[in-house]
Design goal:
- InterPro entries: A2-macroglobuin_RAP, Alpha_2_MRAP_C, MG_RAP_rcpt_1, RAP_D2, RAP_D3, RAP_sf.
- This is Alpha-2-macroglobulin receptor-associated protein.
- The protein is mainly α.
- The chain folds into three domains: about 70 residues, Receptor-associated Protein (Up-down Bundle), CATH 1.20.81.10; about 100 residues, Receptor-associated Protein; about 110 residues, Up-down Bundle (Receptor-associated Protein), CATH 1.20.81.10.
- The chain is built from ten helices and two strands, in the order αββααααααααα.
- A two-stranded antiparallel ribbon has the order 1-2.
- Strand 1 and strand 2 form a beta hairpin.
- The protein starts with a helix and ends in a 9-residue tail after the last helix.
């Protein structure tokens, strides 16, 4: 049955009730996708959204199957799915509100943006400027470090999004009348607060790592370069994995890092192809436009496919590590 689900998702296009081909098997995900196309999201952002929606689709279909078998009685997985969906909406600016998170004074960032700020966070900006002028890093190491800083900035944004969804749920929670429903919502809120606490712990550990690297430079035996892979490796080293399990995981993380790099390569190619297409469209040669459009569409498809595989692998690795004594966040 599980094979049937993944096979259908990966190999066939979904159809709606009128037998029209659609991108996803779940109506609300198609609505988000269609809205993103109308909003004319940048190609790489659109590709990233597609991968996130594909992961959401896989998780929701798995949950429906579990629910049909009488599992998830406390609604914990359902609440997590809803939370992840809300995070996707907020992440791509589709939650129907202006993005005030970066200006909100009770959030992690409580300063005015100044000229020269790179990461919208005073602690990160200060560290980055220190790293740039320290002379400890080669140009290549600085690029790697900058990716780590940007990854940490994304983590802060995700934390603020989850914080917003928790605040909104608490507002709704205050208006609950039924005691039974109240108990359920209390449980869901507890889950959300646990998630927030874990995200905050992860942020603090991530920042400490950046601080350490800025002061000491990269060690000669740095295992990985990609921020997501480094984060997983640090998480694994703090878990209850045995030496053999860590060695095995290290090898798998090496394969995963290759996948991440390949995905980034396709994203760069997609961006270049989009720029070329715009240039060709401005010139107006129909044959030339057609050829470039075909190339662009092929690259877009490939970037989405690679993005899904990469995020699925990330999810599997995160779950594998978390089962060995660690809480985790999935986004």
């Amino acid at each position: 049955m599980a094979g049937k689900y993944t096979k259908e998702m990966n190999e066939q296009k979904a159809s709606d009730k009128n037998n029209n081909q659609v991108e996803f098997r779940i109506a609300k995900l198609n609505q988000v996708w269609e809205k993103a196309i109308r909003m004319q999201l940048a190609p790489v952002r659109l590709s990233e959204l597609h991968s996130d929606l594909k992961i959401q689709e896989k998780d929701e279909l798995q949950w429906k199957k579990l629910k049909a078998e009488g599992m998830d009685e406390d609604g914990e997985r359902e609440a997590k799915l809803r939370r992840n969906f809300n995070i996707i909406l907020a992440k791509y600016g589709m939650d129907g509100k202006k993005d005030t998170r970066t200006l909100d004074s009770n959030r992690l960032k409580d300063h005015d943006v100044k000229e020269g700020d790179t990461f919208d966070d005073p602690r990160l900006d200060k560290l980055w400027n220190k790293a740039k002028t320290s002379g400890k890093f080669s140009d290549e190491e600085l690029q790697t470090l900058q990716r780590e800083f940007l990854h940490h900035k994304d983590r802060i944004n995700e934390y603020n999004i989850v914080m917003d969804t928790v605040s909104r749920t608490e507002e709704i929670h205050k208006n609950v009348i039924s005691p039974l429903e109240g108990d359920t919502k209390e449980h869901v809120l507890h889950q959300k607060h646990s998630d927030l606490k874990q995200r905050m712990r992860d942020l603090n550990q991530g920042f400490e790592r950046l601080r350490k690297i800025t002061h000491e430079g990269y060690s000669a035996d740095s295992e990985f370069k990609e921020p997501r892979v480094i984060e997983l490796w640090e998480m694994a080293k703090r878990s209850n994995l045995s030496e053999d399990e860590l060695d095995s995981l290290k090898e798998e993380l090496g394969h995963f890092e290759t996948k991440v790099e390949k995905h980034q390569h396709y994203q760069e190619q997609l961006e270049l192809s989009h720029q070329k297409l715009k240039h060709v469209e401005a010139l107006g040669d129909k044959d030339h436009i057609m050829r470039n459009k075909e190339k662009y569409n092929t690259l877009a498809e490939k970037a989405r496919e690679m993005g899904y595989k990469m995020k699925k692998h990330l999810q599997d690795l995160t779950n594998k590590i978390s089962r060995n004594g660690l809480q985790h966040n999935e986004l």
